[in-house]
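Why should sequence recovery work at all? Because a backbone constrains its sequence more than one might expect. Tight turns favour small or flexible residues, buried strands favour hydrophobic ones, and helices have their own preferences. The token representation captures these environments compactly. In the example below, the structure is given first.
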């Protein structure tokens, strides 16, 4: 007959068995066989790594690609406990990724995840199609935060300098010009306040400042000056220089007829030669006034003036000035004054008669 001690021992054994955990586990070969059967029956969709020793689900691949594109490539974890810890830390990792920017080459993502590139490309394209703030360009995946940071930095650089060349931006951000245009320049907002001209981005404030400088320069010139020298002083390319010049002309602030006044001020000047010609010159009206006064005073004192002097002053047919115009300048306010035009000299009619009489007398 069993004693009370035997009963207590049996109770203890039963409790120990009930509290103990089963040690039965599937072997690696059994796991491989189970997963293979599931794949064959299309019950699961997994992606094998390039070495064939591991596999990941499509959902996990999408998660990895999303986080990798935000500049922090995470490593694939195989055990279930590590996967659980990884999932719990996803939000913290994502926030850290956003703080680091959002740019990652697809090849780097594939290398980090140890999967073929075509799997990463398909998953990245799905992220783009979902319209959750990702874009693919030039074989790289960009997060919306990265593009936003580029736009913010571009605004800052333009505010500091007034202009930026595309080559300097490409070097600064390590981007090709094609990638810079497709990623940033083609998607600038309407309130950007900038103008893309060739290889340079200008702010409207900078262009207006250059236009004001051109106005001041043209107003202060007192002698003919090649347009190339004016353009160099203003610091604008040819197209933008003529844009500023034409803007002033439309506002009646340059290229006015002599003795014509604007509503507020008088800024005369004219161009000689073609705009595309290296000899294109800006001649201020002040220069014409000074030349006119000099020629009139010289002719009044001597009653003659050599055509060589007129040519140096730009008053000859080779420079577009007709003889009749020279005669009007010499007459000035004395409309009754008669002049005699010879090949090398222009002299007053009385002086010409005196010279003629002296020659006949001899």
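From this structural description, the recovered sequence reads:
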């Amino acid at each position: 007959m069993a004693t009370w001690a035997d009963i207590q021992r049996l109770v203890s054994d039963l409790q120990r068995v009930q509290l103990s955990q089963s040690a039965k586990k599937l072997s690696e070969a059994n796991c491989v066989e189970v997963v293979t059967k599931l794949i064959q029956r299309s019950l699961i969709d997994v992606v094998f790594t390039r070495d064939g020793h591991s596999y990941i689900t499509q959902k996990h691949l999408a998660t990895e690609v999303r986080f990798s594109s935000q500049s922090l490539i995470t490593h694939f974890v195989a055990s279930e406990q590590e996967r659980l810890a990884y999932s719990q830390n996803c939000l913290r990792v994502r926030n850290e990724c956003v703080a680091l920017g959002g740019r990652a080459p697809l090849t780097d993502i594939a290398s980090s995840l140890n999967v073929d590139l075509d799997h990463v490309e398909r998953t990245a394209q799905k992220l783009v199609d979902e319209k959750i703030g990702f874009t693919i360009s030039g074989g790289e995946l960009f997060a919306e935060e990265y593009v936003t940071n580029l736009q913010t930095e571009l605004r800052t650089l333009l505010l500091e300098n007034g202009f930026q060349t595309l080559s300097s931006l490409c070097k600064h951000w390590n981007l090709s010009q094609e990638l810079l245009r497709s990623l940033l320049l083609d998607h600038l907002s309407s309130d950007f306040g900038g103008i893309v001209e060739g290889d340079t981005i200008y702010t409207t404030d900078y262009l207006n400042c250059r236009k004001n400088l051109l106005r001041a320069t043209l107003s202060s010139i007192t002698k003919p000056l090649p347009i190339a020298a004016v353009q160099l002083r203003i610091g604008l390319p040819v197209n933008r220089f003529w844009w500023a010049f034409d803007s002033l002309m439309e506002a009646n602030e340059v290229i006015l007829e002599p003795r014509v006044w604007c509503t507020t001020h008088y800024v005369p000047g004219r161009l000689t030669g073609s705009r595309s010609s290296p000899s294109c010159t800006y001649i201020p009206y002040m220069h014409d006034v000074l030349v006119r006064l000099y020629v009139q005073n010289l002719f009044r004192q001597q009653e003659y003036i050599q055509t060589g002097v007129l040519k140096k002053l730009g008053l000859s047919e080779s420079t577009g000035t007709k003889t009749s115009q020279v005669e009007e300048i010499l007459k000035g306010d004395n409309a009754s004054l008669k002049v005699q035009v010879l090949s090398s000299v222009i002299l007053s009619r009385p002086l010409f008669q005196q010279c003629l009489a002296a020659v006949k007398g001899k």
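A few observations help interpret the result. The chain has four domains: 82-142, 146-205, 206-287, 303-361.
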